Amino acid sequence: MQNVNRRQFLKLAGAASALAALPRAVGAATTPARVVVVGGGFGGATAAKYIRMWGGNVQVTLVDSNPSHISCILSNLVLTGALPMSKITLSFGSLKSKFGISVLQGRAVAIDGGGNTLTVSTAGGNQVLPYDHLVLSPGIDFVAPEGAWNPNLTPHAWQAGPQTTLLQSQLASMRNGEIFVMTVPKSPYRCPPGPYERACVVADYLKTKRYTNAKVIVLDANASIQAEPVGFGNAFNSTHAGMIEYVPNATVLSVDSASRSIVTTAQIISNARVLNIIPNQKAGAIAAALPLNAQGFVAVNPLTYAVAGYPNIHVIGDACAVPASDNKAVPKSGHMANSEAKVCADAIVRALAGEAPDTNVATNSACYSPITAKTASWLSANFNYGDIYDAAGNVKGKGMHRVDLGEADRANGDNYEDMFTWAKSLFSDSYA
Length: 432
Ligand SMILES: Cc1cc2nc3c(=O)[nH]c(=O)nc-3n(C[C@H](O)[C@H](O)[C@H](O)COP(=O)(O)OP(=O)(O)OC[C@H]3O[C@@H](n4cnc5c(N)ncnc54)[C@H](O)[C@@H]3O)c2cc1C
Description:
Structural class: alpha/beta
Number of helices: 9
Radius of gyration: 21 Å
CATH superfamily of the largest domain: FAD/NAD(P)-binding domain
Oligomer: single chain
Strand order of the largest sheet: 5-2-1-9-22-21
Bound molecules: flavin-adenine dinucleotide
Number of domains: 2
Helix content: 25-40%
Strand content: 25-35%
Distance between the termini: 35 Å
Largest sheet: 6 strands, mixed
């Protein structure tokens, strides 16, 4: 395993921005091609921006249910009060004014794949948008656990916004001796290190309050820690020893939000002070009409992000499933969504110009995880298009093969500062 130098991977988002200097005009067609993008998160915002930058005469409409995007990235720091919500609220303003993207606030409710139209429910009624290419980046939806789960009582805060504020206020109401219980969904899920990061920042917050008898119980549906096992293992057993209890193989059997109680295959807990249920995940609802894999995500071609049988419908970001070597899955991260969006944008611009997609494709991901109020760790992974392998090492087809996995040696203050530099670079590459 080769380590990626921290400084090297900080440049990744910057390197992607440099590609912006290479516009690829789409011929001199008089009628502009129409691309509709659903979802203004890291995938959709980046795809819309880069199609406009590289595509020349292309009309791009970005559809999102909300007037701006609230980033999950850094949202665990909003929970603890380290950051205000405004720092993770990303405006669509530059996408409109600098890149000429039409932004429509509304909920995409139906795709007519034969007629090439998307129906959007808006405050003023339904609008039907014709498209030449449709890009979907709707993120995730949840698989409701058995029992009586109500996210307004036991929030997930795995889509940032009101859920973040709710969990923040529940955490703030905790007192010494009380327990914060959280679940880790079955893989694959959004941001593999994210739940463990949350356990750490919550524990750190409770320690700062001197609630030495408070506890964070992490009920993991997986058999082991899914990202940075050494780093988070140290965080649980050393940095936050006595405060965090990690429980693997805890499949959720039922939840009762009203009494904040949960039954899992490993533990039963009644009357937790805070119950942060992060349920199992699947592709965002608008993608559900497309062919889904067994885990509920949309399998795509990693050269174009097109869906089998729908060459002009593309799915990127957390909602898609990219063929990859066994045990080397492409992670569901904002950085990866940004990276996939550029590959998809390039493929669309080439298709509109009558060209074949590029086959020399690489994607990358990075996640920074605060461990305390002053330290952070990081994880990065790089993928190249080519042969992918089964568990025995035999070629099983073509897809994205992980060529690099790097992680911080230990959590420290430099990483904490670099986290903001990296986030600023990613936010600006997607939205500014
Ligand atoms: C706590 C936490 C920490 C994280 N930390 C990191 C990190 O350090 N690094 C990293 O790279 N990633 C991180 N992530 C993961 C990252 O947030 C996601 O992977 C990323 O947001 C995925 O982008 P997306 O475009 O697929 O979806 P999203 O960002 O969820 O965007 C989807 C958008 O689509 C809109 N939408 C959905 N359906 C519709 C519809 N039908 N009509 C209209 N609009 C619709 C939504 O309103 C939303 O704005 C973290 C996640 C969490 C929860």
